[in-house]
From TrEMBL:
Gene3D superfamilies: Leucine-rich Repeat Variant (1.25.10.10). The gene is ARMC7. This is Armadillo repeat containing 7.
Amino acid sequence: MAQKPKVDPHVGRLGYLQALVTEFQETQSQDAKEQVLANLANFAYDPSNYEYLRQLQVLDLFLDSLSEENEALVEFAIAAAF
């Protein structure tokens, strides 16, 4: 199971989302990638996060994940779109 990203509690939501994106991009663990992408997908359900997700290009991350061989990543990416 992936650990929570190491984030200064004072950085706020944008900093937390940035830490998730960085963890997704840098980790080699498929389990960690799945957990992080699922977390990002959950943030995508809240319209107040849209500007942060757009700024961090998380939408592109979801689209790129659609071509992954890992079916869980594809499912989480699809879930984020709905």
